[in-house]
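From the thread on structure requests for the teaching lab: each student submitted one protein with a one-line request. Submission from student K.M.:

"Model Prealbumin-like fold domain-containing protein from Blautia hominis, C-alpha cells only."
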Amino acid sequence: MKKREWSCLAIVLCILILTTSLHPVWAAVEGSGPAYANGAETEDMDKGEIREEKPETEEISENDLKASGEENRNTGPEEQEIPGDMPKEQKEAEEKTEPSVTEGQITEETKGEKSTEEDSEENNREKEAVLEKIAGPDGPCFSIQSNLGRFQRSVDNGSRLQVNSVRFDKFYGDVGLGSYDEPQLGMGIKYIDHDNETPDADGKWRYVYCLNFKKSSPTGQDMTYQGGWTSRKIAYCLYYGAMFWKQPCRYAKYSTGDWQLDYFVTQTAIHVLNGEFSLSGAFRQIDRSSQATTGEKALAKDRINKLVNDANDGGNYASFTQDGWFDASAQATFSVTTPSNFAGDTGGYATGYSTPTFKTAYDLDMKEQITSFNVSVPGGVSVQKKDNKTYSDFRLYVKTAQYKLWQLTGKTVTATVKATAPKWWGGGIYTAPSGSEYQDCVMWTYTTAGGSFTKTASFDKKIPKKTFTLNIQKKDAETGEALTGAVFSLWAYDGATYSKKLGTFTDKGSGKYTYIGIDYTKTKDGWFLIKEDKPPKDYEPEYVLYNNADKENYQKYGGREVQLTADGFTFDGVPDATIFKDNPMHPKANITIKKTDADTGELLEGAEFKVYEWDSSANAYKKNALCTMKYDQDTKRYITEKPVEWTDSNSGRFRIVETKLPEGYQCPWSKEIEVKEKDTVTIELDALNYPERNLTIEKKIKVDEITWAHGDPTFLFAVEGTDRNGKKHSYHRAIEFTQDYVTKNSVDGFVTLSTVIHGIPAGEYQVEEGAPVMRYILTDVAAVSSNISIVKREVEDVNGFMKIEADVVADLRGMDGEVTFENHKTRYDKLSHNSMVINRIR
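Reply posted by the TA:
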C-alpha cells in the first residue's frame, strides 16, 4: 500500500482511539489483518504492512485452543465486545488478553523495529490469544450469561442481536481495502451470539452476512434491525445458501461439502449480487490465494458462479415477490407424524410422540419460522410437549379414570394441529449502533407485514372398546373344594328384566368358569345377570344364598346381578359374589382299568391290581388293600366289584397299584385318584405296561492282530441305569473270541462277536467297556440302532491308533438297542494268556 494511504489511515485511527479510549472495542473485519484501536478493523490491510505492539500477556496453552481457532491460526485476529455480566474467570481472561494499542505504536518506525521472523511470531501469539476467545459455538464466550434472544420463540428479527465470528481466510488477498475489480476476500464466519438459546432455533446459530466489504466487521456488536430488506437476489442466496452454523448450503447444488467454504460461497455471492465487487474480480482473487488448494479454488468458483447465475435468473423466483420477499405460503407444507397407540403411562395412558414437519420450496425444513402451534383435542385429553420449542414434538395423554371410562364404549380421539407462520420471509438488514463504521448485515428472518398463514394437519387415535372377562368359581359348600360340571349363563338387562341370554360360561376346570368378551354396550347401564342353569351332579340345584340381597336377586330374576363399570365388575351387595357354593351328596366311584402294551396298544391279561385307601389320621395310605380288582372277560377290563366311597376318613383318596405284571413285562403301574363327584361315577384309567427290552453289545476286532499265544481276546462290559419307574438296574457281560469262532466268522479281515442282555426293564442305561484288555485299546464305538447316543473323546495316539473314551447311552424305553465297540491291538510284547471264569447266580 502507498505510504500516503497508510498515513491517512493512521491519522483516522489516532482520532478514533482518542474518542473511544474509555471503552476500547476490538472487532474483526470481514477481511483479515490486525485491528485498529477503535475497533474499525478494515478488510484491505496487508497482513505484513501493519502490526500492533502489545504488552506481554499470559501464555495460552494448546489445550485451551478450540478446534475452529486451531484451524484458522494463520488468519488475522478477531475479538468481540462482551455485553452484560460475565463470570469472574471470563473477565480475568479478558483483562489479561485484551490488547492496548496507542497512537505511537502504529507508525512506520514501529513497523520496522523487529525482524520479519519476530514479527510473524508475535502476530501468531496475538492471533491465538484472540481466536481463543471467539472460537465459535464451542468457545468460552458461550458461558457468558446473556438474555439476547433467549426468550424468543420463533427465530424472528428481534431488536438487538449480537454478532460473533470465527476466521476463515483461505482467500485473503494482499490488496489492502480492495476494490470492485480486486476485492478483499478475507472474512470471518459470522453468526448470532446466543441464537441457539432461542427455543425454536433447536440449538442452531443463524449465519450473518455483510453488505459492505470495505467497512469493518460487526463482530462483538449489538446489531439493530432497521426495518430494511434486501433484494430478492440476496434473499435467494440466504434461503438456498448456508443459513446455520456448521451447516452447508441448504440446496445441494450450491454446496461444496465443506460448511466453512459454503459460508464463503454464500457471502461472496451476496457481495457480487449487492454490486460491491465483480464476479470476475472475485474469481481472480480466489485464483491468487496461497492458502487454498487448486481443488478448493475451482470448487468455490463453480458454486459461486451457480449461485450468482441462478439468483440473476428471474425464472427461479416462483416463491419470491418482486420486491424481495419470499412468500412462504406459496409452497409450504405441514404435517405431523401419526403417533403410536395409547399405552400405559404414569397416572394414565399416552400415545407416542408426534413430530411436526414444516417445509417450503425445494422441500427445505423451516420449522424455526413457526410462530404459533396449536393442538386441538377433545375434552378429557391433554397435550404434553416434549420440550419448550413452539413446534415441539407432542403426545396425547388421558388420565386413567377417563381412559377406562372411554374403554367401555370405545372412543376416537381426533387431534387437529394448526401451525401459523409469517407469510413473508427474507433478508432483514441490521445496522450497528448509531455513529459506528461497521458494515450493515443481513440474515434470514421474517416479517408480519404481509400477514401470516396457517397450515393444518390431523390424525385419529382410537381408544378401542374393551371387552371384559368374568371369572366365577364353583365350590363345595361343606369342604370348599372346587367343583366342575356346573352350567352357568349370562343375561342382558333391558331396563325392566333380564330378557336376553348372551351365552354360557366356559368350564375351565378346577372349579373355574369363564365368560370372555363381555360388552358394556350389549346391556343397559352395564347390568348383567349370572344364572346357574345346572349344578354339578349330585349337588343341590339351588346354590347357597349369602344374604337378603342375594335372596331377592334369586327370587326376582333367578340369578345373581352384576354391574360392569370402568373399574370392573361390582355386585349388588353380595359378599364373595363370584363364588357359587353347592351343598353336596356323598360321592362314589367305580374304577375301570384298561391294560395295554405300551408299544402295540394290545390289551393284556394276567395282571393284578389292588386298591388302597387313604388314612387321614396317619396321613398315609393303609397297608392293607381295600380290595383287589378282578378281570372282566366281556369288557377286557379290570374292575372294582363295588364302588369305592368317599368318607371323612379317606377324604375320597385312593391308590391303585399293579401288584402283578403280565409275563414279559416290567415296570409296574400305579395311580392315585380322588373321588369327589357328588354321585356314583365311573373312573376309567389306562394302565400301560412296557415290554422287557434286549440290549445287544457287539465287539469288533481285526483278525490279523490276534496272537493266540497271548490267549483268547476277552472283553468286559457293564450296563447300568434306571427303568421308567426310577428303579436302578445293573448288568455285566463278557465277550471272548476263541480261535475256532474267529476262523469261522471272520469277514474282510475283521471278526465280530456279540452278547445280548435279555429282559431289561424299559428305561435309560449307560453302556461302557470294562477294564482294558491287555494290548488292546478302544478305537471306535458305533450305534447300530437309532436309540443309541454316543459321545466320543480322543485320548492319545498309541502306536498309530487313536485311543478314545466314549459315553454310550441306550434309550430302551421304547425299543431294543444295539451298539458296536471296535478295538485295535497296539502291543505284541511278551507271551501271556487271558483267563476268565464266569459265575452265575442260580
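TA comment: Confidence is low (pLDDT under 50) at residues 1-115, 126-146. Residues 319 and 330 are 6 Å apart (CA to CA).
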